[in-house]
Amino acid sequence: MTSTCSATRSSLDGVPEDNFTTHGSQSTETRHPSPRTLGELRASGHVQRSVRDEIRNNLLSALREGRDPWPGIVGFEATVIPQLERALIAGHDVVMLGERGQGKTRILRTLVGLLDEWTPVIAGSELGEHPYEPITPGSIRKAANLLDDLPIEWRHRSQRYSEKLATPDTSVADLVGDIDPMKVAEGRSLGDPETIHFGLIPRSHRGIVAINELPDLAERIQVSMLNVMEERDIQVRGYTLRLPLDVLVMASANPEDYTNRGRIITPLKDRFGAEIRTHYPIELDDEVSVIEQEADLTASVPTFITEILARFTRYARDHPSIDQRSGVSARFSIAGAETVAAAALHRATVTGEDQAVARVVDLESVIEVLRGKIEFESGEEGRELEILEHLMRKSIADAVRAHLGGIDMAPLVDALENGEPVVTGDRVRAADLLGSIPSPGATSGVLDQIAERLEADSEGERASAVELALEGLFLARRIGKEADDSGQTIYG
Question: Region Disordered: what ranges (predicted)?
Answer without folding.
Answer: 1-38
